[in-house]
UniProtKB/TrEMBL annotation:
Pathway in which this enzyme or protein is active: Cofactor biosynthesis; (R)-pantothenate biosynthesis; (R)-pantoate from 3-methyl-2-oxobutanoate: step 1/2
Function as written in the Swiss-Prot or TrEMBL entry: Catalyzes the reversible reaction in which hydroxymethyl group from 5,10-methylenetetrahydrofolate is transferred onto alpha-ketoisovalerate to form ketopantoate.
Subcellular location: Cytoplasm
Binding site for 3-methyl-2-oxobutanoate: 58-59, 97, 126
Active site, per annotation: 195 (proton acceptor)
Protein name per the record: 3-methyl-2-oxobutanoate hydroxymethyltransferase
Principal subcellular localisation of the protein: cytoplasm
Catalyzed chemical reaction(s): (6R)-5,10-methylene-5,6,7,8-tetrahydrofolate + 3-methyl-2-oxobutanoate + H2O = 2-dehydropantoate + (6S)-5,6,7,8-tetrahydrofolate
UniProt-listed CDD domains: KPHMT-like (cd06557)
Alphabetical UniProt keywords: Cytoplasm, Magnesium, Metal-binding, Pantothenate biosynthesis, Transferase
Cofactor note: Binds 1 Mg(2+) ion per subunit.
């Protein structure tokens, strides 16, 4: 037994999270919790706190590397952090982001990059966009690689989108996002992140595709699950923090300088709040 074994009994006995288990959860109406992790120590804490899905996000460009976007992150960086997270993982499902420039050129390029991340320990890869990426998703899925899609605000396209702005606000833009979600579901994406889109649109996409697990961030409470960046949840992100973020180390109703929760307690509070529907809160976190 490693020193990591001092955990809650519930965490120690949790069966491995798999795609069928995630689908069962969604079918039962239980919300799916996803949180980013970039190293073994935090992966273990987050897994033991009961988070269902660990995401090795390319947001590590921001929170680990100190960059202002995810664009400088390479496949080698992602593989390294995926290896670190796999060491700490106990039973959560492990998803890794395909970084900018590692999959857009062709389905073949995407396959080679996905293989590198799966070898590093990922169980599913995530890639941003639709359009030409729909056939790339199909190509990977047909070759046995589970795929999480990602539409709405796709941070790797920040310069093309003109900033980190809410997507799908008007009817025409909402219709495009709905068509993208439908195409990605048809191509076989088992999961999809909906980032920074109006709550009603995210709810509609979720209801339209019961087989594809929708994970929201700044997308309201109507998705099948939620994701946050770990540093945002812990209130330790430097610089501006998006409106959809809650600092879970703060105990609601206490003054700002009151003692905070431990990291494990804060992650447990996130899991509890997503599962009981109290996070996200439409008025505070919705668009
Ligand atoms: N720490 C961190 N948290 C994240 O959620 C995150 C990253 N980094 N890096 C990669 C992307 C970038 N993301 C971002 C970045 C900025 C906003 C933002 O500034 N949103 C504003 C404006 C929304 C509007 O158009 O009204 C907001 O207040 O939410 C949102 C998502 C989400 N991801
Ligand atoms: C915010 C999530 C969805 C992400 O893609 C990341 O952490 O890179
Ligand atoms: Mg990402």
């Amino acid at each position: 037994m490693s020193v990591h074994s001092a955990s809650t009994p519930a965490a120690a006995t949790r069966a491995s999270v798999s795609l069928p288990r995630l689908r069962d959860m969604v079918a039962r109406g239980e919300k799916v919790t996803m949180l980013t992790a970039y190293d073994a120590t935090f992966a273990r804490i987050i897994d033991d706190a009961g988070v269902d899905v660990l995401l090795v996000g390319d947001s590590l460009g921001n929170v680990i590397q100190g960059e202002t976007s995810t664009l400088p992150v390479t496949l080698e960086h992602m593989a390294y952090h995926t290896q670190c997270v796999r060491q700490g993982r106990r039973s959560a499902w492990l998803v890794a982001d395909m970084p900018f420039g590692s999959y857009e050129a062709s389905p073949q390029q995407a396959l080679a990059s996905a293989v590198a991340l799966m070898r590093a320990g990922a169980q599913m890869v995530k890639l941003e966009g639709a359009g030409p990426m729909v056939e790339t998703v199909r190509f990977l899925v047909e070759r046995g690689i589970p795929v999480c899609a990602h539409i709405g605000l796709t941070p790797q396209r920040v310069h093309a989108l003109g900033g980190f702005r809410v997507q799908g606000r008007d009817d025409a833009a909402a219709a495009i996002l709905k068509a993208e979600a439908a195409a990605l579901a048809e191509a076989g994406a088992d999961m999809i992140v909906l980032e920074l889109v109006p709550s009603a649109l995210a709810r509609d996409i979720t209801l339209a595709h019961p087989r594809m697990i929708t994970i929201g961030i700044g997308a309201g409470a109507g998705t099948a699950g939620q994701v946050l960046v770990m540093h945002d949840l812990l209130g330790i992100t430097s610089g501006k923090r998006p409106r959809f973020v809650r600092d879970f180390t703060r105990v609601a109703g206490t003054e700002a300088d009151a003692p905070g929760l431990s990291i494990a307690q804060a992650v447990q509070a996130y899991v509890a709040a997503v599962k009981d529907g109290s996070f996200p809160d439409e008025t505070q976190h919705g668009y």
